[in-house]
Fold this sequence. Notes:
CATH topology: Growth Hormone, Chain: A
CATH superfamily: MFS general substrate transporter like domains
Number of domains: 1
CATH architecture: Up-down Bundle
Radius of gyration: 20 Å
Order of helices and strands: HHHHHHHHHHHHHHHHH
Amino acid sequence: MYILLLLLIYLAFISLGLPDSLLGAGWPVMQRVFDVPLSYAGLVTMIISFGTICSSLMSDRLTKRLGARIVTVASVFLTAVALFGFSTATHFWMLCLWAIPYGLGAGAIDAALNNYVALHYSSRHMSWLHCFWGVGTIVSPYIMSYALLHAGWQSGYRMVSFLQLGITAVLLVTLPLWKVNEKKEADGEKETAVLGIRGALRIPGVPFLLTGFLAYCAAESTVMLWASTYLVRTRQMPEERAAAFASLFFIGITVGRFLSGLVSERLGDRGLIRLGTCLIAVGILCVAVPVGADGFALCGFVIVGLGCAPVYPSIIHSTPGNFGEENSQAIIGIQMASAYVGSTFMPPLFGLIANHISIGLMPAYIALFGVLMIVMIEKTYRRVGKIH
């Protein structure tokens, strides 16, 4: 039952990744259909991220009250409904409306499952958990590419919605499997009070970690949203081809997280983060090389994905060890909120830069946040090291 439950959690994380790459893959076409500026994709992601911030901050209370299993099933179902709503949108404001329930569902499941795996499973499984998120993000651009060729962007959202509903059904009928860790969770809940935002921020090292996590997610989400448009505008790729090639970034993340799981015990969380940062820098250089061939940019997105792969799961998995298991759910919830602050404001900001200056500045924009990320994370480890 222990392994079967882990497989179900992996499945839930596939459902979390499925919608994340849809908007970026379909936006070059959706922008024309809705007749809105290029930067308006950022408004949709801003609303989604605002919902995730709210539900992430509430995750400590929700998980203690309902349990991780109920939060997971309800959240996947909520995102399925929201995605079907996206497919029915005939005006841009409808996209904004359906972005609200999508964001609320995504934030709750993200925080609940990350903490659950950090507490009950090893760092290897944390890396592989996020590897399965990458599986979802890889599948979606190909679904959207197929939909753009044969039907329309609405079909892409509808197909992913049906996949989400199927995953909801599987999770619902297997709820009893979660009892395998039920006693441990109950014991933890008796000993753990709600920490709150102020309490978390008073813990040494937490503010640095939140800033670094924000910077990482700002860089990652910028690539997720704008990679397809970057290839169309700077490399003159056909929109359908660019939608498919944008998934190279997610392929890099997925493969990288599988490999990270194999070496996580040897390198440790901090070593994986440093290695990932170096790969991100190499990938950015490849994307930025001003050559006529597309190969450098495509390889660059793969390498950036490989570099991003270990950062997110390593930060999350190290949280109970750095700040205590009794504080982990609250801190991970705030980490999710911090991450979504980066996802909320930084991609739309780049959309404005792309509108008024040039989308060709994307590599420099990503590099800026990469530097901020590694500086803040190193400060976190030094601060925590002094305490311990």
